[in-house]
Amino acid sequence: MTGGKQMLELILGGVLFACCAYTGMGIRAYYRKRKEMFEQYAGYLDYLQEDIGFLKTPLVECTREYCKGKKGEFIKILSRYCSMLEEGKVSREDFDELFSSPYIEKRYRKELSYVFYGLGKVDADTQTENLRKARAAAETPLNFYKKKYETTGTLAFKLGVVLGIAAMILAA
Predict the structure, then answer these.
(1) What is the mean pLDDT of residues 44-65?
(2) What's the number of domains the chain is made of?
(3) Is the model more confident about 13 or about 26?
(4) Buried (b) or exposed (e) across 6-15, using 16+ Cβ within 10 A?
(5) Helix %, strand %, coil % for the chain, to 5?
(6) Which structural domain, as residue segments, surrounds residue 81?
(7) pLDDT at 53 over 70
(8) Is the pLDDT assigned to residue 83 strictly greater than 70?
(9) From its phi and psi, is residue 104 left (phi > 0), alpha (psi between -120 and 50) or beta?
(10) DSSP letter string over 89-113?
């Protein structure tokens, strides 16, 4: 009977460890996705500045080219953005809905929506200047999310593992 109880305690400890560690991993992944979202946004703005300023490539073509071989939440948004443009969905509500992601805080949704709503509606020089301003504004959330990932995300993962080990020890 003692062997069965020990096995049950071991299994319970393992399950508790896995739950705590998985929670820590989930929190870290959430912060990583937020960081990657703004890294890709900043990269996209840089890419657009170059293509619009020098090559004058059409917006949908330029966006699809940027997305090739890339993955992530922002790339999914860009794919939906291209589809919207091709379908003629260009209302403010469409753009607001486009950026309704759990990885984008409400305070940045309007900003992103405004930037994308304005793409392709002015001459190349004005567009390049607007992209430069948007890129400069993207630095604040980008740096914030990088720091948040390095601190809170990493800490959450480590804390999850430590709590999991503690729960495993207490269960035994």
Answers:
(1) 82
(2) 1
(3) 26
(4) eeeeeeebee
(5) 85, 0, 15
(6) 2-171
(7) no
(8) yes
(9) beta
(10) --SHHHHHHHT--TTS-HHHHHHHH
